Amino acid sequence: MPSVVPFTQSPALSGKDPLLRPLTPADVKSCTVVERAFPEHEQCSEEKFIYRLNQTPELCLGLFIWEEGKEQLIGHIIGMRVPTKEITEGSMHMPENWRERPSDQAYIVDGQLIGNDPHGKTIAIHSVVISPQYQGNGVGKALVKAYIEFIKETQVDTDGIVLIAHDYLIKFYEGAGFVNHGLSACRFAGETWYDLVLDL
Questions:
Q1: Confidence band for 2, pLDDT divided at 50, 70 and 90
Q2: How many CB atoms lie within 10 A of CB 46?
Q3: 129 pairs with which residues across the strands?
Q4: For 110-154, what is each residue's pLDDT tens digit?
Q5: What is the pTM of this model?
Q6: Where are the beta strands (DSSP E) in 47-168?
Q7: Under 8 Å between Cβ of 121 and 83
Q8: Count of domains in the chain?
Q9: Which of 5, 81, 93, 156 could form a disulfide with 120 if both were Cys (CB 3.0 to 4.6 A apart)?
């Protein structure tokens, strides 16, 4: 798949020349802005975006439109690797002093993975977000489906995709092919989540 591809699935973006491309560390500021669509306690910090976009840029996809002659990020999906078919509390965080640690080694604390496992066979989605002005009209679902195709077409070495979601979003993800595995053991941000799994 080319590094930049048209995004044509959503009529809501007609005339805005939407496109998809893998994210890079240069997109951190834009990701931080889009992430504000989440409640503050659930938002990914700028430092965590720096970590994730340095560790697994190939698993992170941005949805852009053209405005005033430049790219404008309006949505993203941020993925990392985990060794199991579930997202744990530790995988939602990042290792201390990660810049000084070998990027090809998993960081384990008290038996729990912290952040990315470079050898993990499962993609853990840590963020799916669309800017508020583009929500509610199919853009989010189109982005999730495009991400799944992106992973398949780029032949990423994986056996599936997992994420955690609030109960009111279960049907949304089931519509994209995920299966609800019930309540998650992860209590990220002090919230109740459900495990959603897509086998590939």
A1: very low
A2: 13
A3: 76
A4: 999 999 999 999 999 999 999 999 999 999 999 999 999 999 998
A5: 0.95
A6: 61-67, 70-82, 108-109, 112-113, 122-130, 160-165
A7: yes
A8: 1
A9: 81
